[in-house]
Amino acid sequence: MEEAYLALGRKILTDGHLKEDRTGTGTRSIFGHQMRFDLSKGFPLLTTKRVPFGLIKSELLWFLKGDTNIRYLLQHNNHIWDEWAFERYIKSDDYNGPDMTDFGRRVLTDEVFKESYEKEHKEFCNNMLSDDDFAAKYGELGNIYGAQWRHWETKEGNFIDQLKNVIDMIKQTPDSRRLIVSAWNPEDVPSMALPPCHTMFQFYVNDGKLSCQLYQRSGDVFLGVPFNIASYALLTHLIAHETGLEVGDFVHTLGDAHLYTNHIDQMNEQLTRDIRSFPTLKLNQDKKSVFEFEMDDIVIEGYDPHPAIKAPIAV
């Protein structure tokens, strides 16, 4: 099944269109692509490079809690959303440190600047963890995934828990064609640190199995997509566990699937590696609800990947 992901990387390298993007980095991209993973045949955590499952767990649990402040992530040593919160902070009137403009790219080429950035970033994270007021002001990313999944606000000022509603529907009306959760709320997009890339997902029940399809408007194929595959596979497992179903397929549908131009060498390196067996997911059977799970309740066994391949994130 990992070949489906590697085939996407090859396709972009050979057929991708060179495009400018909001980060100024540049991409090679294709439009419209689909991958399918049979979750009964192993948990789709890539083996051609190490993918940090702990970060995937804490991020998904963060979404499930309806949380949109990065403090929870930092408490679990997860820094994958730091850049967006940090960028908001350095653009604020409260920041009076050295110039951090375009920090995402400057740290790659300027060692003096990198040292300065790491100092400011460390101080930012320490303040996030130790100062409640600072965390409330600068850790908040707007109404991103957790907010839309768990408390979508209506024009009347009420809140919809989309995820809980879908789980209830799977239990009560499993043949429904409306088992959908949307993260794309046009009214909230302007206030989000990063408008949702994985915009909506839908469940399908057949023969006692739960399948999930994700539509992702924009996919960073080298860094982001491996996380998305594992995250939604985990979500499918958790909901199947609560609803008493087996797992079926995870179907990943991508709109703009792209490689950043500074990820080309890394993708080529990954394509030289042999595929190994997917690991196995183990869930704490004592936990009955999706919303009860904590980090220690979710374990991967038999994961033997190739080493990680580092690449810069585009902010």
UniProtKB/TrEMBL annotation:
Any one Gene Ontology cellular component term annotated for this protein: cytosol
Keyword line: Cytoplasm, Methyltransferase, Nucleotide biosynthesis, Transferase
Presence of the UniProt keyword Chaperone in the record: no
Binding site for dUMP: R22, R177, R178, R217, S218, G219, D220, N228, H258, L259, Y260
Residue numbers binding (6R)-5,10-methylene-5,6,7,8-tetrahydrofolate: D220, A314
Main location, first listed in the record: cytoplasm
GO biological process: dTMP biosynthetic process; dTTP biosynthetic process; methylation
Functional pathway: Pyrimidine metabolism; dTTP biosynthesis
Domain Thymidylate synthase/dCMP hydroxymethylase: 4-315
Protein location: Cytoplasm
NCBIfam families according to UniProt: PRK01827.1-2, thym_sym
Quaternary structure note: Homodimer.
Name by which UniProt lists this protein: Thymidylate synthase
Name of the coding gene: thyA
